[in-house]
Amino acid sequence: MDDPASTHFRRDEVTWLAFGMLGFYNYLLSGLGPLMPSLREELGLSYTIASLHFSAFAVGMILAGLVGDRVVRRYGRMKVFWGGAAGLAAGAVALTLVHSPIQTVGSVLLMGGVGSLVLVLIPAILSDRHGENRAIAIVEANTLSAATGAMAGLLIGLSEQTPAGWRGALLLSLAIPLFLVIRFGRVSLPAAQRIGVQRHAGTRLPLAYWAFWLGVVLVVGTEFSLIFWGADFLVTAGLSTSVAATTVSLFLWGMVAGRVTGRQIARWMPAEQLLLLALGVSGGGFIVYWLAPAVPAVVLGLFVAGLGVANLYPLIVALALGAAPGQSNEAGARLTFASGTAILAAPLLLGALADAVGIHLAYGVVPIFLLGALIASHLGRRSSQ
User: Fold this and answer.
1) Contacts of 97 (CB under 8 A, 6+ apart)
2) Alpha carbon of 189 to those of 9, 80, 196, 258: distances in Å?
3) Which pLDDT tens digit goes with each residue over 269-288?
4) Domains in the chain, please, with CATH?
5) CA distances from 247 to 221, 240, 251, 260 (A)
6) Which of helix, strand or coil describes residue 114?
7) pLDDT the model gives residue 200
8) What angle do CA 322, 26, 243 make, to 5 degrees?
9) What are residue 312's phi and psi, to 5 degrees?
10) Is the dihedral of CA 344, 142, 316, 306 positive or negative?
11) Do 274 and 381 meet the contact criterion of CB atoms below 8 Å apart?
12) Which of 229, 22, 24 is nearest to 124 (CA)?
């Protein structure tokens, strides 16, 4: 990839539209965890039934990843983008209105399935709009989405102190797509770039892309293993359940700080080098979190791991899209499939291992994920040359 600072990066209306919609998407995804204890209490759900909500969102992402590029080819980016936004909003509203487990799981499946069409398109749109500066654009988009994700838990907690309960925070988030429609509803999205030889539906994505695709699976698996199981691990480190639930949010705030920092570094450091740096910080932070004997060091390691993990996904996505010129719709759809697969499978794998050998030993899969991501990114770079 060329030096990302080789041309001027400018945030235009399309860029801000993509940023805002990704923020809305991540707010709803990240809000599922904080609202789940209240939903469990209201409906009398077991942990197993409650976990189906997370699985439903992940399955929806997988479905969007499988068919998203074909849907875009048939209906066009504009219709699919706003249709996905409508699916997100409709699923959120439905979740606040229904009162049975089947209905609530179905509402989340609607958010994850139809709503994830925006996740198919956003990296592709930013890549086509910004070209060699795609890494900057995608890192900045994910910086904003990390902030909205971290804010979701805070706002849901505050909303639960009001008569509206957690539903108030979900309904409040609808102001985001409403503003985007009013402000950017007539903005035209860029068409998929066709670089060099014209590519047609069914053209295979290059080997380098699939190496980076595997890296996406592994880094998303790392991220959600820490998000979903971090609180349980902190309990084994000596924290109370309530303190652990609050403390694990430091990982998310570490991600916010990491993406703010990464956004600046991406302006002068090539994405390949920044990815290696981020993998090193992620690994170092996780080792401290995993093996440190004292609670303060464990907590510090969790925050540092968040700093590094923050930039793994946007950077590998940028490299994957750069490895598939002229195929941004197809590449974006498969990346959404990769994320959904990781969110569905990695926490389940870690949980199954935790039942067998304890959560401390089970967390040994995370260094394997990170090492695998390093190898995959190396293979992707070699195949791109």
Assistant:
1) none
2) 18, 11, 21, 29
3) 888 999 999 999 999 999 99
4) 10-186 (1.20.1250.20), 204-385 (1.20.1250.20)
5) 20, 10, 8, 21
6) coil
7) 47
8) 125
9) -65, -50
10) negative
11) no
12) 22
Token pair recorded at residue 273: 């080098």
Which pTM was predicted?
0.79
In the numeric block, the tokens 């295979």 are attached to 204
Please name the residues in contact with 92: beta carbons below 8 A apart, sequence gap of 6 or more: 28, 107, 111, 170, 171, 173, 174
Residue keyed to tokens 């998407």: 25
Q: What is the pLDDT of residues 4-52, one digit of tens each?
A: 444 577 889 999 999 999 999 999 998 887 788 788 889 998 777 877 8
Contacts of residue 282, defined as CB under 8 A and 6 or more positions apart, other chains included, come to: 222, 305, 308, 309, 312, 370
- 80, HSE (Cβ side, Cα atoms, 13 Å): 26
The residue written with tokens 């990240």 in the block is 30
Location of structure tokens 């991406």 = 266
Instruction: Name the residue with tokens 């892309």.
Output: 209
Token pair listed for 126: 């930013």
